[in-house]
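Quick question, first post here. What does this chain look like in 3D?
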Amino acid sequence: MKKTFLAAAAFALLATSASAHVFEDFRCGPYKVTWLIGKYFSPEPDGLCEMKGSCDGEGHYLVMRDDQRTVVDQQVYTKGGDLFYKGFKCRLLPFKG
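> Answer (accepted):
Ran it through. C-alpha cells below.
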C-alpha cells in the first residue's frame, strides 16, 4: 500500500504546474478524487484530524459525497504509470485558481 501511495503521490507531483498548490483534482469515471498534501492531515489543531485515521501528516486521496470527505487511499492505485480509482482510469483536471 505504501508503495502504491508513493507512486501515486509522485504522479500527482509530476502533474503539477509551476505554481504550487496544495491539491490535485482527478476525474476517475463518474468520481472526482482530490489529493491533498500532508499538512492538512497534521495532528496539530489546524489539521483535518476529524477525518478518522488520517492524522499522520501524509497526503491523502479524498472523495466528496454529500458534503462529507472520505479518505479513499486504499482504493487508489497505479498501473502502467496511470492512476486508477475503483477500476476507473483517472485524468488530471486543470487547476482553476
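The longest strand covers residues 23-28.
Strands lie at 23-28, 31-36, 60-65, 68-71, 76-79, 82-85, 88-92.
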